[in-house]
Specification:
Helix content is about 50%, strand content about 15%. This is Benzoyl-CoA reductase/2-hydroxyglutaryl-CoA dehydratase subunit, BcrC/BadD/HgdB. GO terms for molecular function: hydro-lyase activity; iron-sulfur cluster binding.
Length: about 325
């Protein structure tokens, strides 16, 4: 199987049906022991220091690992991706664009996905055979999505940790490049988690916003009798409502992350209520336009919200730890404990 990189979640059903092994460039970047090397590669090649670390990391991963085909999401994700893919093109990387439509209708989503299908099934009309192949792939992926949904449920039962919830859902953006292999990993993990005794915490937290550069946040909050039991974007990457969709078009229409904040907030509010969330940590990345969303989020949600910002570090800095600790103390006071 030929590898293809993705800059964020895209219709992987199309890519796997076309015979590719999918690699989420973000996951390679953030899980690397020497992740700063990827940022340094980008800055050495001219990327400014005042630019999101994720964009620089993605670029470094492509160059360092010889990824020569990439799907770049040019609408519905990071506004810097357009410039990133122009630079990658200049380095000889073959780019396949994908857009989440600005007009959030099923018809527009279908057009975007059909355009995407045409890029990988060149010269072939999008007939019933191609659609069936993509839907068969979606059914194969559903086995992993069911297991990830179970891990999400076990997090609410305090059996799975917030970090496990984060890792095993976010990895469904690409299934680690191996659908069957990763599904088996999920099966074993679910069995192991189900056998545990729950470790209940007093404070239930929601984590919203882009996945963190600082994954130690999950273990840190657990030191203070709290746990993150809802990871917004990671859960969306795992498509927990996939079985309500009759086809790939409906599935990506229902995916909240690339569309309006209003659409996202409906799902966030639903989960806050269903999971009895006490407080929200809203993570934003330095130099990202999404930081402005915090104004609306705080005015809309009826529970306390703490906004924290990450940059290059892959661990929480001292100031952020103090702010989180104070936030958790306040939540405990509100609960009367």
């Amino acid at each position: 199987m030929k590898k293809i990189g993705i800059t964020t979640t895209v219709p992987v059903e199309v890519l796997y049906a076309a015979g590719y092994s999918v690699v989420d460039l973000n996951n390679i970047f953030i899980t690397s022991k020497d992740y700063l090397r990827y940022i340094e590669i980008a800055e050495r090649d001219g990327f400014p220091k005042s630019l999101c670390a994720w964009i620089k990391g993605i670029y470094g991963v492509c160059i360092e690992n010889g990824i020569d085909e990439v799907v770049g999401v040019i609408e519905g994700d990071c506004s810097n991706t357009k410039a990133l893919i122009e630079v990658l093109k200049s380095k000889g990387v073959k780019i396949y664009p994908f857009s989440y439509p600005a007009k959030h209708t099923l018809e527009e989503v279908k057009k975007s996905i059909d355009d995407f299908i045409k890029l990988f099934f060149k010269g072939e009309p999008i007939d019933s055979n191609i659609r069936e192949k993509i839907e068969d792939t979606r059914k194969t992926l559903s086995k992993g999505r069911i297991l990830a949904r179970r891990i999400d449920e076990l997090t609410c039962d305090f059996k799975a940790t917030g970090l496990e919830n984060h890792i095993y859902q976010i990895s469904l953006s690409d299934f680690n490049g191996d659908i069957e292999g990763y599904t088996e990993i999920l099966k074993e993990k679910v069995k192991e988690i189900e056998s545990r005794e729950p470790k209940a915490k007093k404070i239930k937290l929601a984590y919203i916003g882009v996945p963190p550069m600082t994954p130690d946040i999950y273990d840190f909050v657990e030191k203070y009798d709290a746990q993150i039991v809802y990871n917004e974007v990671q859960r969306e990457f795992a498509f927990p409502r996939f079985d309500r969709a009759k086809d790939v078009y409906e599935q990506y229409y229902d995916y909240t992350y690339p569309y309006s904040l209003e659409f996202r907030l409906k799902e966030i509010e639903k989960n806050i209520n269903e999971r009895n969330i006490d407080g929200v940590i809203h993570y934003t990345q330095a130099f990202c336009y999404r930081a402005i969303d915090d104004i609306v989020i705080k005015s809309r949600l009826n529970i306390p919200v703490l906004n924290i910002e990450g940059d290059k570090l892959n661990c929480l800095d001292g100031r952020t730890k103090i702010r989180i600790e104070a936030f958790l103390d306040m939540l405990l006071d509100l609960k009367g404990d």
